[in-house]
Specification:
Oligomer: single chain
Radius of gyration: 19 Å
CATH superfamily: Alpha/Beta hydrolase fold, catalytic domain
CATH architecture: 3-Layer(aba) Sandwich
Strand order of the largest sheet: 1-2-4-3-5-6-7-8
Shape: globular
Helix content: 25-40%
Distance between the termini: 35 Å
CATH topology: Rossmann fold
Largest sheet: 8 strands, mixed
């Protein structure tokens, strides 16, 4: 860890003006939900949906910047990760075989915690990576819920490889699930935090070592935040969800104004697939030099990110 740890991890700690509680979904699983009120009079309310294996603490800085712009922020740990309920006894397994259930979680949280009908200002959706995949499904099925949506690095397809390789991975995962191996780790997955390759992870996610270390520090403070690699069941679930959003005409049916922000140095999700799917449904922006976790990038890259978000949402620090 670097010098002056307290300064370096400050932004990963949740804002002091926060309310954290647990919401019980209709299937009985408990979801960790946070509310972070605007600084001053609220101009809008945002629902922020994070990505795979992430947690509220990782978004502390990003949330605080929305608050400073006059936005109320709601966010939550997705089922199966963070401090929300896990689906398996082994907490290290990332296992979400039904992505549709996660889309239902969004609707239930909005209904129970936000109550769209009582808001007297705009309601925006902001999501990252896997959260953006769920967001696409949600705005497709709920036409009038959000006034605008910002999608960062949408998970529309796994990055890299040929179409043949992708098809073989799908067949392999489906076969494993059919054989009753849904809850087993898929090959090559990180099974414990001690096995994480941090150089490889940083090289895919961000150029900012300090911000990356903040996330590590949060997991050191509370090891239960950690989620490991995916199961065969997760792979089957994500492929099914990818096929849904990739259907011909699916994105065209979305009426919510969309801003899609992509990272030019993307090596986690497939930008080409995102552009193909959303080119007629969203305003697409590419941030040069950025890696997958744009919101967790260097100050210079984040300034470019905020300029695009501010322009789209009509927000600013002023």
């Amino acid at each position: 860890m670097m010098d002056n740890d307290q300064t370096n991890i400050k932004a990963s700690i949740l804002p002091k003006t926060s309310e954290i509680e647990y919401f019980t979904a209709s299937d009985g699983l408990k979801l960790r939900v946070g509310f972070f009120p605007a600084h001053g009079q609220a101009k809008a309310t945002i629902l922020l949906i994070g990505g795979h294996r992430e947690f509220l603490e990782k978004y502390g800085e990003f949330i605080g910047e929305f608050q400073s712009r006059g936005f109320n922020v709601y966010s939550f740990d997705l089922r199966g990760q963070g401090l929300s309920g896990r689906l398996l006894a082994n907490r290290n397994k990332s296992h979400n075989p039904d992505f549709g259930r996660m889309v239902m979680d969004i609707d239930e949280i909005i209904d129970a915690k936000i109550n769209r009908q009582t808001l007297n200002h705009p309601f925006y959706l902001v999501a990252h990576s896997m959260g953006s995949q769920l967001a696409l499904r949600y705005v497709h099925d709920h036409v009038d819920m959000f006034d605008k949506a910002v999608l960062l690095s949408p998970f529309t397809e796994i990055f890299g490889g040929s179409a043949l390789l992708g098809a073989l991975i799908r067949i392999y995962a489906k076969t494993a699930c059919a054989l009753g191996l849904s809850k087993f780790f898929a090959p090559g997955q990180v099974k414990t935090k001690a096995l994480m390759d941090h150089d490889q992870a940083l090289g895919q996610l961000s150029h900012d070592q300090k911000r990356y270390n903040r996330a590590l520090k949060a997991m050191e403070v509370n090891p239960d935040l950690f989620s490991g690699g995916v199961t065969y069941g997760w792979l089957c679930g994500v492929f099914k969800s990818i096929d849904i959003i990739g259907q011909v005409g699916y994105a065209k049916a979305i009426k919510t104004p969309l801003l899609c922000i992509l990272s030019q140095q993307e090596t986690v999700v497939d930008n080409k697939t995102t552009i193909r799917i959303l080119q007629k449904a969203a305003k697409i922006e590419m941030i040069q030099g950025a890696r997958h976790e744009i919101y967790f990038e260097t100050d210079q890259i984040r300034e470019l990110l905020w300029a695009k978000i501010d322009e789209f949402l009509g927000s600013s620090l002023g």
